Amino acid sequence: MKKIRIAFAALFVLPILILSPLYGFLPAYLLRLFGLKKQADRHLERSGHFIGSSILFFLGITVHVDGRENLPEVSNICYMANHQSMLDIVAFVGPARLWASILAKAEVRRIPIINLWCYALGCIFIERTSPHDAVKAILKGVQYLKDGRSMLIFPEGTRSKSGKIGELKNGSLKLATRSKAVIVPITIKGLRAGFEHLHGFKRVHAYFSISAPIDTATLHEDQIANLHEVVYGTIAKRFDELPGEV
Predict the structure, then answer these.
(1) How far is the C-alpha of 207 from the C-alpha of 161, rounded, in Å?
(2) CA–centroid distance for 23 within its chain
């Protein structure tokens, strides 16, 4: 069942991805030629939103998004989300209609078209086996946030396959505290049932919840020391509140 459903989705998703350089990057390139950089970036974002939403639609997944009113009106947002599925980023870009740089595995650079969208997002590629490369990536992320760009971080470091939220690594919080960015906790639930744990043909309902922002620039030292507990607690509490299976 899983293979049939994914194959069906691929019939529609692959053409959308393959043609994206034509309807996404070519118009953006032409806009930049005329000095319209903001319009070019916005066009790429709209195209990314369309692709992300299309992937989930054809996989038979409905993502319920709440909390958009919690999004602060600043540009240097550090989104911090739990990570359980390969579709988490797809939901972030698609139904949630958000856009941010992401720490991505270096191997992704070798995947055609996907790598183009990684560059469009401003991904920071990292060799996970190299501690030195990890430090460089964090420093680059800090600079991105200082420059007014947003970033999406998965503090667990990798996807949790247990159905529970894994331990948040303190190092990821340094991206926000060192750049004095605003942290926006995000809770994602149910996407594994639409891909990794997919079975049958019933439509899957998943949840994407945006919690209240935390301005790290206003925190005292003791608050920063306990920040990982606050972020973890916010995500975990909302995870338990959301309906559906993990």
Answers:
(1) 17
(2) 22
- Cα 172 from Cα 157, distance rounded (Å): 8
Alpha-carbon distances of 95 from 1, 5, 65, 87, 109, rounded to whole Å: 25, 20, 7, 11, 25
Q: What is the pLDDT of residue 112?
A: 93
CA distance 246 to 88: 13
Q: How far apart are CA 79 and CA 176, in angstroms?
A: 9
Angle at 100 between CA 96 and CA 106, to 5 degrees: 120
Where does the chain show beta strands of DSSP type E?
Answer: 61-66, 77-81, 101-105, 124-126, 151-153, 182-189, 204-210, 214-215
Q: Which residues of the chain have pLDDT under 70?
A: 1, 158, 160-163, 200, 245-246
Please tell me whether residue 87 adopts helix, strand or coil conformation: coil
Q: What pLDDT score was predicted for residue 246?
A: 53
Give residue 173's pLDDT.
87
CATH code of 62-241, in short, is 3.40.1130.10
In this structure, which amino acid lies at residue 57?
Answer: F
96-100 long-range Cβ contacts below 8 angstroms, 24+ apart:
96/63, 96/65, 96/68, 96/208, 96/210, 97/49, 98/152, 99/45, 99/48, 99/150, 100/149, 100/150, 100/151, 100/152
Q: What pLDDT score was predicted for residue 102?
A: 92
Q: Where are the domains of the chain?
A: 62-241
> What is the per-residue pLDDT for 17?
96
